[in-house]
UniProtKB/TrEMBL annotation:
It is found in: Cytoplasm, Cytosol; Nucleus. This is Pseudouridylate synthase TRUB1. The lineage of its organism: Eukaryota, Metazoa, Chordata, Craniata, Vertebrata. Keywords: Acetylation, Cytoplasm, Isomerase, mRNA processing, Nucleus, tRNA processing. GO terms for biological process: mRNA processing; mRNA pseudouridine synthesis; tRNA modification. GO terms for molecular function: RNA binding; tRNA pseudouridine(55) synthase activity. Pseudouridine synthase that catalyzes pseudouridylation of mRNAs and tRNAs. Mediates pseudouridylation of mRNAs with the consensus sequence 5'-GUUCNANNC-3', harboring a stem-loop structure. Constitutes the major pseudouridine synthase acting on mRNAs. Also catalyzes pseudouridylation of some tRNAs, including synthesis of pseudouridine(55) from uracil-55, in the psi GC loop of a subset of tRNAs. Promotes the processing of pri-let-7 microRNAs (pri-miRNAs) independently of its RNA pseudouridylate synthase activity. Its main location: cytoplasm. It comes from Hipposideros armiger. It comes from the Eukaryota. GO terms for cellular component: cytosol; nucleus.
């Protein structure tokens, strides 16, 4: 009898244990589900915080971008025009600040102003001075300041653009030209001289660039010679047919015309093979020109602070209350200035 009762108790305990197993599994599943939901909620909260922080960070960058004001320099590579490079700079700054690229506008009041002073040919590289904010008002002064170039000329070939990008229009011998011959004529191109601008240039006729008219095949008359200044001119290297010049000049001077005129003076012809602007006003290529990988809001802010001490006191920006940035709409103004401030030059605002 005792054995039977023990068997019954044992059987009952086994059934109880079996009944408890499903309950334990359900509790574990519920706990796991709760943990998963908690983790998902935490991840969502973290993502929301990260998104908020990112928006706050972008807003801070946008505010900083719109507060930038002054003049700095960038390194223009060969290839793009000065206007194309300025557009690339603008796009990078807007992208960093999380701002959409604005449509071109003709509105007088702009939120962000950016421009350059002193056009560099697309085939040239070197210092390009840029104004941002109220600094665009100082760009005109950059035109009258001195500029320095390293130019490599090629004897024996003339082109319609006066550089290597153009079509060869004439070829002449150069084998009898010596280094002494070149050095002997440089004095004729130093000081206050008269110079005929190239036909392919930013100068305008009836509101259109001469270079644009020529590309259309329209007849273009050469502009009359005009006074320019060459502060220094020296021959750095001569390895026929190539010669290297170091030139420091004033506003409105064309290196392409200089090289072409030197070729003619030597009873030959010549064109510009390479051109580098190493200095514009107080800005130098090595010390001040920002390469493209440093076109950031912080780097430009630091450059503006550093470059402010380079400008003459009379050109320093007056301290004034900065304008409140408009976060609802953003537009940009491009101020493209030609090489000299004359009646046939244009300050273009888009």
């Amino acid at each position: 009898m005792a054995a039977v009762e023990a068997a019954v108790v044992s059987s009952s305990s086994l059934e109880t244990d079996r009944a408890q197993v499903p309950g334990t599994a359900g509790t574990a599943a519920a706990t796991a589900a709760t943990s998963t939901a908690t983790a998902a909620a935490a991840a969502a909260a973290a993502a929301a915080r990260a998104g908020t922080e990112a928006r706050l960070s972008k807003a801070a960058l946008a505010t900083k971008l719109l507060s930038l004001s002054g003049v700095f320099a960038v390194h223009k590579p060969k290839g793009p025009t000065s206007a194309e490079l300025l557009n690339r700079l603008k796009e990078k700054l807007l992208a960093e600040a999380g701002m959409p690229s604005p449509e071109w506008t003709k509105r007088k009041k702009q939120t962000l102003k950016i421009g350059h002073g002193g056009t560099l040919d697309s085939a040239a590289r070197g210092v390009l001075v840029v104004g941002i904010g109220r600094g665009t008002k100082l760009l005109t002064s950059m035109l009258s300041g001195s500029k320095r170039y390293i130019a490599i000329g090629e004897l024996g070939k003339a082109t319609d653009t006066l550089d290597s990008t153009g079509k060869v229009t004439e070829e002449k011998p150069y084998d009898k030209i010596t280094q002494e011959d070149i050095e002997g004529i440089l004095q004729k191109f130093t000081g206050n001289i008269m110079q005929v601008p190239p036909l392919y240039s930013a100068l305008k006729k009836d509101g259109q660039r001469l270079s644009t008219l020529m590309k259309r095949g329209e007849a273009v008359e050469a502009k009359p010679a005009r006074p320019v200044t060459v502060y220094s001119l020296s021959l750095q290297k001569f390895q026929p047919p190539f010669f290297t010049l170091d030139v420091e000049c004033g506003g409105g001077f064309y290196i392409r015309s200089l090289v072409s005129d030197i070729g003619k003076e030597l009873s030959s012809c010549a064109n510009v093979l390479e051109l580098t602007r190493t200095k514009q006003g107080p800005f130098t290529l090595e010390e001040h020109a920002l390469p493209e990988d440093r076109w950031t809001i912080d780097d430009i802010a630091q450059s503006l602070e550093h470059c402010s001490s380079l400008l003459p006191a009379e050109l320093a920006l007056k301290k004034s209350k900065p304008e409140e940035p408009n976060e609802q709409a953003l537009s940009c103004e491009y101020i493209t200035l030609n090489e000299s401030k004359r009646e046939d030059d244009v300050i273009k605002t888009c």
